[in-house]
Design goal:
15% strand, 5 helices, NADH Oxidase
Length: 212
């Protein structure tokens, strides 16, 4: 059974930010100030991590031409990955295609991966860190919620990890011991996506105690 969000949950600023955040894939060209960007990165740094390892490093790209170059090269690799996956897992491939902008599989458009966002934050972690994926996920969520609280929009870009298979990886200056986990795009959104329904039958209480 599916249900939309109940209004009363947004009764605090924190909950309001959580329930208003959306994955935005259309942006205005407005520049984000360094001060705001630093606050957003600081929010990422405040995320919990295994043994307080803080495995994340942030590679921030703001030059339009560089973002467009990375986007085109990543799209080339992703197209190949998706087409290869379509042979073995057609449904999975169709879902992957939904992450692209219209026409991006044909490499149409200047920025098929990062959707015209003025800031792209690549987040890396050590290659041998078993728990890095969980840590980076929490860090990314902090970044996106902080962005929303400051009037910005965002979107996590999993396909960004394919930059490691492109000939332009060296431009990101990521050391060999690190790997790109994902990227977060930031900017002032030029769209307002509707909230998708959320499943409500996925919380299982074990030995639940009565409160009254």
């Amino acid at each position: 059974m599916k249900s939309t969000t109940v209004n009363h949950v947004a009764s605090t600023e924190t909950l309001k930010t959580i329930f208003e955040r959306r994955a935005v894939r259309k942006y205005l060209p407005d520049i984000i100030s360094d001060d705001i960007l630093e606050k957003i990165i600081d929010a990422g740094r405040m995320a919990p991590s295994a043994m307080n390892g803080q495995p994340w490093r942030f590679y921030i790209v703001t030059h339009k031409d560089t973002i467009a170059l990375f986007s085109r090269e990543i799209a080339k690799i992703t197209s190949k990955v998706v087409l290869k996956a379509a042979i073995k897992h057609p449904i999975k491939a169709i879902k992957a295609l939904l992450h692209f902008s219209p026409g991006s599989i044909g490499l149409e458009g200047e920025d098929p991966i990062f959707h015209g966002a003025p800031v792209v934050i690549f987040i890396t972690a050590p290659k041998d860190d078993e728990w890095a994926g969980l840590d980076i996920g929490m860090c990314a969520q902090n970044i996106m919620l902080a962005a929303k609280s400051l009037g910005l929009d965002s979107c996590p870009i999993g396909f960004a990890k394919y930059i490691e298979q492109t000939p332009v990886l060296h431009k990101l200056e990521v050391p060999r011991g690190e790997e790109v986990q994902l990227a977060i795009i930031l900017g002032y959104g030029d769209e307002k996506p509707e909230q998708h329904p959320r499943l409500k039958n996925n919380a299982i209480f074990i030995d639940r105690m009565e409160c009254c």
